[in-house]
C-alpha cells in the first residue's frame, strides 16, 4: 500500500471500481462504516458527537458514519451544508438513510465530545472562504477533538497545501491509498494520526492507474538493497570518495565519510587539498586520505583508485574552485552526490551544471534543502507548485535524482517516480545531519543500488536513525545508529550457508 494517489487518480480508481461492479453507494457505505469503527475504537468514551457534512460525497461518508455511531448508542447531531433535496447521487442516498433531522451548517457547535469533519475531501476545488471558513475556524477553536473524513477539510490532497483555511484534525481516516497531501507539509500536520482503510477496491484496480508517487517505506526499495556475498572482498563493496574542504573546513566531509563507511562501502577515501592533510590524517582511521588540489587530480584519483561514488559539496566552499571540481567529477564514471556548496556554487549558472548533468550517463543525486533548491533552480521551474511537483520538474530538467530535503523529504527521478518521507523527527534538523545523509547515499550507490532507490533508502534510514536515537541527537550520533537499522536489511540466513555457525 505504498502508492500515493492524487484526488484525480483516486477518482479514476473509483470509476474503475464502479465499472467493475462495485456500486458507488457500496463503497461509500464501507467508507462511512470504517469512519464509525475508527471512532468507536479510538474515542469510545465520546457521548455527544457532531457530524459536519458538506455538499458532496465526503458529506455522504459523514451521513453513513452518523448512522453507525447513533446505532452504537452515541448522541449524534448532523449539520449539513445543503438541504437534503439539494444533495445528489450517492450522497443523497446516504442522507436518505439518516432519518433524524438535519441542522443547517453553522458555527453554533456547542462543545461536543467529538466533531466529525465530512465537509470537504477529494473534491476541494478552490480556496475555502465565507461561511464555510467561519465554520472551520469555529471547529478549530472549539476545543473538541476532530476526526476528519478522507482529508482535513481545506487541505489539498494533491499538494498538502492549506487552501484558504483548514481543519486541524486529531485523526484522519482515509480509504484505499493515502494521498500526497497526507504526507506533504502542512497537510501531514493537520491530519493528526492517519488511519488507512480498505473499502473493497482491489490492488489490481489501483495498479491500472500506474501511480508514480510512493510513500517512502522499505517496501519501495528493499528489493534493490545491496547483497553482501561472503566471497566478496572490500573492493567489491564499493569505494566512496569524499571531497573535503580546506584545513579549517573538514568536519562536514568527515561526517559524510562516517556515514558512507557505516553504510557498508568497502573503502572510503578522503579527497583533500594538501593544506588539509595534517588536519585530516589524525582524524581518519579506516578511511584513507589522498591529496587532490585540482579537478585534474580528482579525476585521476577517481580513475586510479577505482572510486565508484563521490560526494562533493559539504564544506568545500562556494565558488570557482568547487564549480571546476564538480564539473571534473561529473565527467568521470563514478556515481556522484552533489550537496551544499556544490549546488550553491552554480547559483545563477545552473545552465552550466544542467548541461553537464544532461550528457552524463552515470547515476547522480542532488540533495538540496529548500534554500539551495530555490537558489539553484530559480527561473527554471514553474513559479507555483507543490514540493512534489517542483522536485519532479527539477529531476527531469537535471536528468538526475533530486532529493528535496526537509521534514517531508521528496525524492524524484527523471522518469517521474517520486517518494515522500514522513519519518523524520523534528530533532533531525541539526547541523551536519545532511552531511551524514550524503555519505549514506554514496555508500549505497557505491554498492550498486540504483540512484532513486539509494536516495529514498538513505532518507528513510536517516529518519529512522534520528527517531531511534531520540531528542538530544547531534549529527555525530547518526552513523552509530546505522548498524542496528542495516541489520534488518541483510539477506536472510540460510541453513545451508557454509559460514553459518549456529
Ligand atoms: N475515492 C473513493 O474511493 C471514495 C470516495 N469517497 C468520498 O468521496 C469524497 C469525494 O467526493 P466528491 O468528489 O463529491 O468531493 P467532496 O470532497 O465531497 O467535495 C465536493 C463538494 O464540495 C464543494 N466544494 C469544493 N470546493 C469547495 C470550497 N472551496 N468551498 C466550498 N465548497 C466546495 C463542491 O461544490 P461545487 O464545486 O460543485 O460548488 C462539491 O459539492 C472523498 O473525499 C471521500 O470522502 C467515498 O464515499 C467512497 C469511496
Ligand atoms: K473532510
TrEMBL record:
<dbReference type="GO" id="GO:0052856">
    <property type="term" value="F:NAD(P)HX epimerase activity"/>
</dbReference>
<dbReference type="Pfam" id="PF03853">
    <property type="entry name" value="YjeF_N"/>
</dbReference>
<feature type="binding site">
    <location>
        <begin position="57"/>
        <end position="61"/>
    </location>
    <ligand>
        <name>(6S)-NADPHX</name>
    </ligand>
</feature>
<keyword id="KW-0479">Metal-binding</keyword>
<feature type="binding site">
    <location>
        <position position="315"/>
    </location>
    <ligand>
        <name>(6S)-NADPHX</name>
    </ligand>
</feature>
<protein>
    <recommendedName>
        <fullName>Bifunctional NAD(P)H-hydrate repair enzyme</fullName>
        <ecNumber>4.2.1.136</ecNumber>
        <ecNumber>5.1.99.6</ecNumber>
    </recommendedName>
</protein>
<dbReference type="InterPro" id="IPR000631">
    <property type="entry name" value="CARKD"/>
</dbReference>
<comment type="subunit">
    <text>Homotetramer.</text>
</comment>
<dbReference type="GO" id="GO:0110051">
    <property type="term" value="P:metabolite repair"/>
</dbReference>
<feature type="domain" description="YjeF C-terminal">
    <location>
        <begin position="217"/>
        <end position="489"/>
    </location>
</feature>
<dbReference type="InterPro" id="IPR029056">
    <property type="entry name" value="Ribokinase-like"/>
</dbReference>
<feature type="binding site">
    <location>
        <position position="150"/>
    </location>
    <ligand>
        <name>(6S)-NADPHX</name>
    </ligand>
</feature>
<feature type="domain" description="YjeF N-terminal">
    <location>
        <begin position="10"/>
        <end position="207"/>
    </location>
</feature>
<keyword id="KW-0413">Isomerase</keyword>
<keyword id="KW-0520">NAD</keyword>
<dbReference type="InterPro" id="IPR030677">
    <property type="entry name" value="Nnr"/>
</dbReference>
<dbReference type="GO" id="GO:0052855">
    <property type="term" value="F:ADP-dependent NAD(P)H-hydrate dehydratase activity"/>
</dbReference>
<feature type="binding site">
    <location>
        <position position="369"/>
    </location>
    <ligand>
        <name>(6S)-NADPHX</name>
    </ligand>
</feature>
<feature type="binding site">
    <location>
        <position position="117"/>
    </location>
    <ligand>
        <name>K(+)</name>
    </ligand>
</feature>
<dbReference type="GO" id="GO:0046872">
    <property type="term" value="F:metal ion binding"/>
</dbReference>
<dbReference type="InterPro" id="IPR004443">
    <property type="entry name" value="YjeF_N_dom"/>
</dbReference>
<dbReference type="GO" id="GO:0005524">
    <property type="term" value="F:ATP binding"/>
</dbReference>
<keyword id="KW-0067">ATP-binding</keyword>
<feature type="binding site">
    <location>
        <position position="434"/>
    </location>
    <ligand>
        <name>AMP</name>
    </ligand>
</feature>
<keyword id="KW-0630">Potassium</keyword>
<keyword id="KW-0511">Multifunctional enzyme</keyword>
<dbReference type="InterPro" id="IPR017953">
    <property type="entry name" value="Carbohydrate_kinase_pred_CS"/>
</dbReference>
<dbReference type="InterPro" id="IPR036652">
    <property type="entry name" value="YjeF_N_dom_sf"/>
</dbReference>
<dbReference type="GO" id="GO:0046496">
    <property type="term" value="P:nicotinamide nucleotide metabolic process"/>
</dbReference>
<feature type="binding site">
    <location>
        <position position="252"/>
    </location>
    <ligand>
        <name>(6S)-NADPHX</name>
    </ligand>
</feature>
<keyword id="KW-0547">Nucleotide-binding</keyword>
<comment type="similarity">
    <text>In the C-terminal section; belongs to the NnrD/CARKD family.</text>
</comment>
<keyword id="KW-0521">NADP</keyword>
<keyword id="KW-0456">Lyase</keyword>
<comment type="similarity">
    <text>In the N-terminal section; belongs to the NnrE/AIBP family.</text>
</comment>
<feature type="binding site">
    <location>
        <begin position="121"/>
        <end position="127"/>
    </location>
    <ligand>
        <name>(6S)-NADPHX</name>
    </ligand>
</feature>
<feature type="binding site">
    <location>
        <begin position="405"/>
        <end position="409"/>
    </location>
    <ligand>
        <name>AMP</name>
    </ligand>
</feature>
<feature type="binding site">
    <location>
        <position position="435"/>
    </location>
    <ligand>
        <name>(6S)-NADPHX</name>
    </ligand>
</feature>
<comment type="function">
    <text>Catalyzes the epimerization of the S- and R-forms of NAD(P)HX, a damaged form of NAD(P)H that is a result of enzymatic or heat-dependent hydration. This is a prerequisite for the S-specific NAD(P)H-hydrate dehydratase to allow the repair of both epimers of NAD(P)HX.</text>
</comment>
<feature type="binding site">
    <location>
        <position position="58"/>
    </location>
    <ligand>
        <name>K(+)</name>
    </ligand>
</feature>
<comment type="function">
    <text>Catalyzes the dehydration of the S-form of NAD(P)HX at the expense of ADP, which is converted to AMP. Together with NAD(P)HX epimerase, which catalyzes the epimerization of the S- and R-forms, the enzyme allows the repair of both epimers of NAD(P)HX, a damaged form of NAD(P)H that is a result of enzymatic or heat-dependent hydration.</text>
</comment>
<dbReference type="Pfam" id="PF01256">
    <property type="entry name" value="Carb_kinase"/>
</dbReference>
Amino acid at each position: 500500500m505504498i502508492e500515493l494517489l492524487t484526488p484525480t487518480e483516486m477518482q479514476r480508481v473509483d470509476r474503475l471500481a464502479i465499472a467493475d461492479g462495485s456500486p458507488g453507494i457500496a463503497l461509500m457505505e464501507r467508507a462511512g462504516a470504517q469512519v464509525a469503527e475508527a471512532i468507536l475504537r479510538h474515542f469510545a468514551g465520546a457521548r455527544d458527537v457532531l457530524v459536519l457534512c458538506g455538499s458532496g460525497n465526503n458529506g455522504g461518508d459523514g451521513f453513513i458514519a452518523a448512522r453507525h455511531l447513533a446505532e452504537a448508542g452515541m448522541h449524534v447531531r448532523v449539520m449539513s451544508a445543503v438541504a437534503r433535496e439539494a444533495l445528489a447521487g450517492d450522497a443523497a442516498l446516504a442522507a436518505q438513510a439518516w432519518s433524524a433531522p438535519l441542522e443547517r451548517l453553522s458555527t453554533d457547535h456547542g462543545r461536543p465530545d467529538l466533531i466529525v469533519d465530512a465537509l470537504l475531501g477529494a473534491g476541494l476545488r478552490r480556496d475555502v472562504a465565507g461561511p464555510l471558513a467561519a465554520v472551520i475556524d469555529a471547529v478549530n477553536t472549539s476545543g473538541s477533538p476532530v476526526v476528519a473524513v478522507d482529508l482535513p477539510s481545506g487541505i489539498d490532497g494533491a499538494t498538502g497545501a492549506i487552501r484558504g483555511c483548514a481543519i486541524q484534525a486529531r485523526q484522519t481516516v482515509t480509504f484505499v491509498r493515502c494521498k500526497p497531501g497526507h504526507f506533504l507539509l502542512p497537510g501531514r500536520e493537520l491530519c493528526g494520526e492517519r488511519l488507512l482503510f480498505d473499502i473493497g477496491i482491489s490492488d489490481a484496480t489501483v495498479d491500472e492507474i500506474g501511480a508514480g508517487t510512493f510513500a517512502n517505506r522499505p517496501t519501495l526499495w528493499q528489493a534493490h538493497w545491496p547483497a553482501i556475498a561472503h566471497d566478496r572482498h572490500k573492493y567489491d563493496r564499493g569505494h566512496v570518495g569524499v571531497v573535503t574542504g580546506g584545513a579549517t573546513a573538514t568536519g562536514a566531509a568527515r561526517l559524510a565519510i562516517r556515514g558512507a563507511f557505516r553504510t557498508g562501502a568497502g573503502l572510503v577515501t578522503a579527497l583533500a587539498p594538501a593544506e588539509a592533510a595534517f588536519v585530516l590524517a589524525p582524524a581518519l582511521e579506516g578511511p584513507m586520505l589522498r591529496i587532490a588540489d585540482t579537478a585534474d587530480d580528482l579525476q585521476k584519483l577517481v580513475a586510479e583508485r577505482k572510486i565508484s561514488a563521490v560526494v562533493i559539496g559539504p564544506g568545500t566552499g562556494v565558488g570557482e574552485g568547487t564549480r571546476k571540481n564538480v564539473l571534473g567529477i561529473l565527467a568521470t564514471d563514478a556515481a556522484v552526490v552533489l550537496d551544499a556548496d556544490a549546488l550553491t556554487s552554480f547559483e545563477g549558472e545552473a545552465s552550466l551544471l544542467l548541461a553537464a548533468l544532461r550528457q552524463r550517463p552515470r547515476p547522480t543525486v542532488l540533495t538540496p534543502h529548500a534554500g539551495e533548491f530555490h537558489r539553484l533552480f530559480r527561473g527554471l521551474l514553474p513559479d507555483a507548485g507543490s514540493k512534489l511537483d517542483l522536485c519532479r520538474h527539477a529531476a527531469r530538467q537535471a536528468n538526475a535524482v533530486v532529493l528535496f530535503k526537509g521534514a517531508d523529504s521528496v525524492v524524484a527521478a527523471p522518469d517521474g517516480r517520486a517518494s515522500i518521507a514522513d519519518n523524520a523527527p523534528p530533532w533531525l534538523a541539526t547541523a551536519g545531519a545532511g552531511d551524514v545523509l550524503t555519505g549514506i547515499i554514496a555508500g549505497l550507490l557505491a554498492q550498486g543500488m540504483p540512484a532513486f532507490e539509494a536516495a529514498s533508502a538513505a532518507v528513510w534510514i536517516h529518519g529512522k536513525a534520528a527517531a531511534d536515537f531520540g531528542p538530544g541527537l547531534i549529527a555525530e550520533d547518526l552513523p552509530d545508529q546505522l548498524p542496528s537499522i542495516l541489520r534488518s536489511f541483510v539477506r536472510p540466513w540460510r541453513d545451508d550457508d557454509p559460514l553459518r555457525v549456529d
